[in-house]
Design goal:
The protein is α+β, with helices and mostly antiparallel strands. The strands form 8 sheets. Strands 1, 2, 3, 4, 7, 13, 14, 17, 21, 22, 24, 29 and 30 form a 13-stranded mixed β-sheet that branches. It has a 4-stranded antiparallel β-sheet with strand order 16-15-18-23, with helices on one face. The protein is globular, with a radius of gyration of 27 Å.
Length: 765
Amino acid sequence: MDFADLVLALSRSAPHRHGPRSRSLVRAVGPWLLAFALIAGCRGEHQGPGVSADATIPEEIVSGRAERQEAARQRAGLGDRKQILFGDLHVHSTFSPDAFLTSLPMMGGSGLHPPADACDFARLCADLDFWSINDHAEGISPRHWSETIDAIQECNARAGDPDDPDSVAFLGWEWSQVGATPADHYGHKNVIFLETDRERVPKRPIAAPRPEFRVPLLPVAARMLFSVLHFSQREIYADYARYAEEIGAVPYCEEGVDTRSLPLDCHEVAANPAELHEKLDRWNTPSIVIPHGTSWGLMTPKGFEIAKELEQGQHDPDRQLLFEVYSGHGSAEPYRDWPGAFSAADDALTCAPPSPDHLSCCWQAGEIIRARCEAEEGASKDPARCEARAAEAREIYLQAGSAGHLTVPGADVDDWLDCDQCRDCFNPAFSHRPGGSVQAAYASRSFDADGTERAYRFGLIGSSDTHDARGGNGFKEFARLENTEALNRDPLIQRMMGRGDAPEARARPITLAEVPLPQRRDVERGNSYLLTGGLAAVHASSRRREDIWSAFETREVYATSGDRILLWFDLQNAPQGTVPMGSVVEGQIGPPRFAVAALGALEQKPGCPEFVGEVLGPERLEQLCLGECYNPGARRRAIDRLEIVRIRPQTAAREPIGERIDDPWRIFRCDDRGEGCRAEFEDADFGSGGPEVVYYARAIQEPTPAVNAGGFRCEFDEAGRCVSISPCYGDARTSPEDDCLSDNAEHAWSSPIFVRGAGARASAR
């Protein structure tokens, strides 16, 4: 019985309250009524941050990280280097509204994961050197912010000596802005702070203007229904209602008032990145803003271009220092210049016919409608009718924007094949938007009236974007529904989201205004593109918080797709000598000469180190770590090849960038027998008087199985067309035990080295 059936039964019982039919109905619905009565009386409790484990990681575990690296460097002949530390700068707990919602049984969630879980997972399960809390500011009440500060301080206290901690926890939040069109979309940015003392950080998180996201919609009727259906877990639904009340009760802060003068108990908003940066400036405490999700089509509108922040003065070069190129939502690295295929701003409303590289969803919408039309009686006598309907469907799809998938009634995941996906990209984001890629960012320039050149000089990091407090969860490829954002939703949710419509042979026009926000996203198709998370790596002088932060500021950082690949990238003949990744070099004389080296990640042993089980106990070990931890063996995986990307940025406003990106520019094949891979090269085409050139390195490891690495797992015909797919569903069509593994060549991406010749004009800002 679903909620509608129950309401109908109750309404029918009224005229027959004293008859046999009434008594029979009461017997039928009596247990339901009793359940509703019990649930209605449940007030719910405030769910706090939890308490992290009072555990010290053994010294030999922490020192072993550095010793393994040093031994590997010596074998590879790399000499003395800074230690490489691994972390995750994108961790959500159930202090985030979407994370709380997806923790509910109706979404296939496994229960609450508060900030204390994030601390324990980072230190004990994932063995991270650093991490940050980044709950969505839109759903953090004053009480939750205070508790977040307490939780981060407690986590750092557990880590021991601040001069040599086993792990460093950073305080932060996420500013989450989503626009319906490229013009009003800026995307998602994580904010992190050096300090954790509540007297030295902002008094409240600063959110994006996103009122519909403060608490995701869960109507009372739906909450009551699922509380009955999951009766033994009914308390969590009441706790969610309490959370919603707490967030909703916080008033908006008064506009136009200095952020430092606002009361503690108000919800502060920054309308755009420039306003966010201005508000952070006023707090006069070190902070870094990290864009992410810039190419993720599930939330990024077609036609979005990251270059607009430069053009509008929305970029702060002193604060936006890092870019999350990889997460559990895939890679935001590559730019593709296929007109109409990936929808750059000028062709966002064109529908490209299929090519060997790409199938547009607008085109596939037409093909679905055409096939249905041709199956109708009499269609063979009027083929023009079906062609007209296909053309109409393509246009309707484009006009519907992010709700395009709803314009074809009754279309399922399989019907769409692999439309709008990048076939030649490594672990691409779902419906990849190349205008938001990091390569587009590096290639873009804006020019002020006075000739000032503005540029992005991001360092590259990876992270998880976990919503289950499991930072650094890519150390082993298992537990798809726990270690990715895939949802195994209750079947009734599918009905509520509009699935199950009858197929029709004609598209239906839709406007975004008439579609609730959750339904605009093609979540079920997106499930096949959700991965375990990436990592941020830093070259640091020590394990101290300040030295890790210094690496952030100098961009001596790199990204991995989850494996702990060791990577170095240097310019050997800069005017000041050898400089590492992240450097900005002015006055380069002669061809720049580079060196790159990489060592593969250590293979993992099953289970967890013995001390983790002793600290957590068997029940907590399974609940938190899922029975598996970072547990390195002795053998390193082989590096298959090193690739170099060269980007020559725009020299004039709105200059096409496709031909300015050389990817790959150089490839070095490796014969890695346990000592890694090294290469040296120079750019003989570099002109000392020319504009800045951007160089970065990729290290690519031997293939190993990974969750969802195959995307839709297309079957191609002889002409290279995708004719069928094997999706990884979020519902019962894919077993919860199926991790949808495919071979995956794990990546590491260095931060670039930005090189400008001796005769070039002044450096960009």
